[in-house]
Amino acid sequence: MKIRLFVTGGTFDKEYNELQGTLFFKDTHLPEMLRLGRCRLDLEIRTLMMIDSLDMTESDRMLIAENCRTASEDRIVITHGTDTMVETAAYLAGRLSGKTVVLTGAMIPYKFGSSDGLFNLGSSLAFVQTLPPGVYVSMNGKCFPWNAVKKDKRAGEFIEI
Amino acid sequence: MKIRLFVTGGTFDKEYNELQGTLFFKDTHLPEMLRLGRCRLDLEIRTLMMIDSLDMTESDRMLIAENCRTASEDRIVITHGTDTMVETAAYLAGRLSGKTVVLTGAMIPYKFGSSDGLFNLGSSLAFVQTLPPGVYVSMNGKCFPWNAVKKDKRAGEFIEI
Amino acid sequence: MKIRLFVTGGTFDKEYNELQGTLFFKDTHLPEMLRLGRCRLDLEIRTLMMIDSLDMTESDRMLIAENCRTASEDRIVITHGTDTMVETAAYLAGRLSGKTVVLTGAMIPYKFGSSDGLFNLGSSLAFVQTLPPGVYVSMNGKCFPWNAVKKDKRAGEFIEI
Amino acid sequence: MKIRLFVTGGTFDKEYNELQGTLFFKDTHLPEMLRLGRCRLDLEIRTLMMIDSLDMTESDRMLIAENCRTASEDRIVITHGTDTMVETAAYLAGRLSGKTVVLTGAMIPYKFGSSDGLFNLGSSLAFVQTLPPGVYVSMNGKCFPWNAVKKDKRAGEFIEI
Predict the structure, then answer these.
(1) Mean pLDDT for chain C overall
(2) pLDDT tens by residue, B67-100
């Protein structure tokens, strides 16, 4: 079973710029995280962009959708900022078929000691192997169909609607 | 969906005893790891024992099987040492039915910076939600039916047989 | 030998606010860091403020100076943002005497895995025990008299002038 | 000011061997720790051996003493297992002169998340810059002359005698 992993950035991959005192993107940490988890799945990783999902445009989503469509794999995990993860999931649901696509992210950057990133990566890679075709969001240990989830910004977690 | 989490120890929960310079068990770190992963699943955690799986006896396995049988939940994750995880999985398969039971562990203790524990926890909690009744081993991002897996001790990973 | 530890915030104690996606101050991590370092010195810790040193005013510096002056200890370490650490050191030098005062900070927040905080804490606590009365800045493993140091913002380190 | 850093192993550099489930030595982590601490001192690092100090022989101590004697630097830090750190300090005190030598170690391996290693490294590098010639032990934030210290094995800390 081959799985495709698309990286789009989000809090998952943010880093601290010590010269400016701000958060920014450098390279993705996905390969390092998969090594840490001793993941032995047959994965193909591709970085599509490294942006905060609040900055995502229709153009960016079109790029993600096109890459999902043309990928040879029919099981895809996408790391994404949590703020507009549901929007992107909805966008993809309307344009893909025959593929199991799971979007995941992190509330705390992986580079911070107390990140949920590794846990979510384990979750999403497991869900993508067992769920039937469709678009899903995987956060907080759960998996939601794209049209039955929203981000509760006050609590900082994803809930069923 | 309620999930039961049984802790039996294994490398997952080992700690370094600085006074003796040896590895030992204290309390389980599962609650801490679930908080880190921001897991919002409805989980019931129970520590059954804290031992190295090389020291597990038939008596210990009987205890695990009995607890699985009497648990009200029909979805169960068991943290376990990797050395005899397959043996315990086989033992349980012969004694349980109607429940999805996933065994997982870690090659490096959670307390060590470079642990696969959090990743495996995310994986197993995802698999237990989607797999049909049966006994499984979840390691290295994969999930194996109890009778189709073994630990490759040389490589330090689990493979399909 | 009693040592006083004054906390003023700075990058040392910044945390990631997962709901806003920004950096902020909560409680100081100094006690936790001292426990980690297994520090057995006779220390008295007091949080004076938790601010970014770019936001420090004359009023804040006056508070720091007054607390240093009235402290019963004559050996004092102050955790401080790196951006205006030298300004505060100069301010204190003009107002204190008979005390060994060492300012230190961190380029990366302690809460991030790759922080220099713990190393700098060890350094400054050692320097404060051996240096003669005066005001110093301790960063990058070195110790500088207050009037012979500046922050090289481009390189992100402290150098002798 | 040039400082020499001799590595002899000890708990400082122990790692977890996931295939055997035991602790062992691989390469020293000193360079990585110095990078983390953003240490800008002029340091020369040399690994003399990587052993548990309980296994140290007269022959090993002779090697350490000879290297200290012939080093061009007169400020030296030695990382060492805590169990016989005081013995080695005494051995060196009888054979060296005109050099400031500070021995330090860690109660928990650096590779474990909760290590005192980085703190002790910061301490010892600071002490070696300010103390007069002699042999010292730096642990728990303190610095002890070689003949006024012992390891309290019950409490797991170093105390003055």
Answers:
(1) 96
(2) 999 999 999 999 999 999 999 999 999 999 999 9
Strands in D134-139's sheet, in edge-to-edge order, are: D42-51, D2-9, D75-79, D100-104, D134-139, D142-145
In chain C, what residues touch D40 (CB-CB under 8 Å)? Answer: 140-142, 157
Model-level pTM? 0.92
- D32 pLDDT band, cuts 50/70/90, is very high
Specify which residues B4 forms β-bridges with.
B44, B76
**CA distance linking residue A100 with residue A95, whole number of Å:** 13
Q: Of chain B residues 27-56, which have a CB less than 8 A from chain D? A: 52
CA dist D11 and D115 (Å) reads 10
Q: Is B100 on the interface with A (CB under 8 A)?
A: no
Residue B154 with chain D: CB contacts under 8 Å:
19
Shortest Cα distance from A34 to chain B (angstroms)? 9
Q: Using CA coordinates, name the residue in chain A closest to B143.
A: A126
The A residues from 141 to 160 touching C (CB cutoff 8 Å) are: 153-154, 156
